[in-house]
Amino acid sequence: MRSRGLRGRLAADELIGAGNVLARVLAHGADPDGPGLTFDTPVDGHPAAHPLTLGQLDRMVDARAAWLHAHGVGPRDPIAVWAGTAADMVLSYLALTRVGAIPALMNGRLRPEIAAEYIRRLRGAGVLADAAHTDLLAGHDLGVPLLGTPAEAGTGDPAAAPPPYRHHPDDPIVITHTSGTTGIPKAVLHSHASLFAATRHLLTMPQAQGTSRILNALPAPHTATVLMVNQALGNRAEMFLLSEQSGERVLDAIQRWRPDGVFGFSVTWAELARFDLSGYDLDSVRLWFNTGDCSHEPHVRRLVAVGSRDTVTREGVRRVPGSVFVDGLGSSEMGHSMFHITHRTDTDRYGRCVGRPYRFARVAVLDAEGNPLPPGEVGWLGIDSPSLFRGYWNDSVTTHRSRLRGWYLTGDLVHADDEGRYYHLDRAVDSVDAGDGRRFFTALSEERVLAACPDVVDCTAVIVREADGVVTDVLLELAAGADPATDRTEAVRAALGPDVGATLRRVVPVGAEDIPVTVTGKVRKVVLRERYLTESPS
Fold it and tell me: What predicted TM-score, i.e. pTM, was given to this entire model?
């Protein structure tokens, strides 16, 4: 039942929210034999890459709900989930919310000592961890019991499942965590209503091209995957969820599964840029959808050059070469991307433009006191949206520090143009006050270098303030076959522009393994700054 009527009924349903989409879709008459989800690993005897029907998915969730209920898990119990597969993460989320508990989804790549400390700070009711991650937690004081593995939960009797918990809109529904660029990740809380607000809005609009058969290349424990699972269920779309998001893995999945849409973070598009995409069959892809950090122009241009899309002509709808890339800016706290801009082969608005806000969001560029700034002036990005997180779990200090005059401060520096488009310059913590009213931006510097140097597939700008001024190091990841011995200093200096270029200390070819990143692939620039401040400039 892929009807427009079902989507409209879901959008108007006052009971639906992020904790019960699966149950409400079935309650509104969706075909149990229609699409559920597809996982890339076996689960409960179901083979990898074999689609689950909606009814099969519902029974798997009921089995886990019955097991959780029998083990004493109930409403408002925070339960940490640490596992390595998308199946374990998503099924645990769906089952825990079905009994009214609060899943705290954890990235499987967290270091064990950080994971243990994160669990302690949750002060929850228990932990679900797969066998490998259970072993990693051995010897750590978690403060809560290990309940078992997600696979054990799957052995429950679906017939013994309790009735689905009826959520209030304000009920806490899931805790996800930030990327942890500065240490222990922050625990981000969403409610039944907040994490469905954007989905409810999208269900009132025509279903977008490229959202019928989706490859989810987002990290499974991230807020974005929770959103996408609920959107796919509401749209009655097919979705294949990857447990690992490397460029090679994504390209292989596209060729095998033939999605019309691929959803991911900018780090995935940067990885795809390292490949000769002409050697892959990517014709099925109509849409690339990015969230999190906005993407760099050269990475986007490589992607829109492949695939195909439908376009309306005088002769009717035609399939033409070249796909669509929807960029934006989002975070765990925002609950959904706040902006959107569409790129095709014939569009040319880049320069870190993230586009216009979604209609459900209110945004502003603010000064340090929270006053709105006019177009063209750089300031803090402030957000007011029904999709915003409810706060940082067990951390009211950080929660309140992130708010100013009714705005949530994202930590990003932006400016707007006269036509209402927004441009992302940098994370505030990565920018540098250069004095005399000047501020240097690492993300904008990287954008300029990538646009100017075609043999560079990715780069990282490290700008630091020392006692005698500002210095900049630029780390280049070169395309296959590019000569690392070539001196690119003057080309990089010119790309940076006169102000930042005057501070350039060195240009260093590096491998991807030389760049410290978080569990979601974000560069840990604070680590790089500390490293390069202590090294000699040789």
Answer: 0.94
